[in-house]
Write a structure and sequence with these properties.
The chain is α+β, with helices and mostly antiparallel strands and 175 residues long. It has one domain.
Amino acid sequence: MDRWRQYLFENHPEAQLQAWARRLQMFRFCRAYGGHANDGDSLKVVFPYRGAEDLVRFCAELGVELVQYHEQPPQPQSGVPYPGDEYARFPSLVPGTQWFRQPGHCQIAGQPVFVWCDRDAIRISIGSDYIVTEEDVLSALRVEKALAQAPLQHRDPPADNEHCICPKYYPAYFG
């Protein structure tokens, strides 16, 4: 087995990843980059959006709290070092909006998720402790039911590379 396949199937047998791929409609298993990236495996889905109105509507539909500040909150300045506790006081803002706070850790359909917004995409991930479990897949299936009613269409793949178990890179898994 080549090194990539060895890494890809290190924590989950190929048959398990194939079974998950067939069960999930929107979420895709994404293998961590590993090494010094300190990332973990996760289930991901991405919803492109065109502006703050789409973002607000999407979050409202799913019950995700979206906090908007009335004026720009203080932000860290480039090149200035901050102790960890001081840096943590700066809210992370959604780029391209007038001061919406990143949703971060929240719930959709009663399930724990992590929601992070880029300038044009809402990224939802499930998984903790670095390894995706069957419980995470069950959670994703519950969230998918709520996402089916979302006012935006998801983009597949959520990560356009071979780390993402999706039809583009692993078509045999979806047959």
